[in-house]
Amino acid sequence: MKPQQEPPRRGRRCPICSRALTSPGARFCSDRCSNVDLGRWLNGDYAIPVRDDPDGETETES
C-alpha cells in the first residue's frame, strides 16, 4: 500500500513585490518591502471604509 502523498503547497508570496518568501515565518521578502508596507500604514493608505449614519446622529457617552 502506498502512503498518501500530500498535495503540493502553494508558496507564500510577499504582499508588496510578489517574490516567494524563503522563511516560513517571514511576512516580507526583504527589509525594503517591510519598510514600504510600514510607510503605507503611516501615510494612511490602508484604511477600513466607514459608512456615515444616515440620520446624522452620533452616539455620545452619558
From TrEMBL:
Please list the residues that bind Zn(2+).
C14, C17, C29, C33
Span of the signal peptide? none
Question: Which keywords appear in this protein's UniProt record, sorted alphabetically?
Answer: Metal-binding, Zinc
Pfam name, any one = YacG
Any note on cofactor binding?
Binds 1 zinc ion.
**Cofactor(s) essential for the protein:** Zn(2+)
Q: Does the keyword Metal-binding apply?
A: yes
Homology family:
Belongs to the DNA gyrase inhibitor YacG family.
Q: What role does it play?
A: Inhibits all the catalytic activities of DNA gyrase by preventing its interaction with DNA. Acts by binding directly to the C-terminal domain of GyrB, which probably disrupts DNA binding by the gyrase.
Q: What is this protein called?
A: DNA gyrase inhibitor YacG
- Gene that specifies this protein: yacG
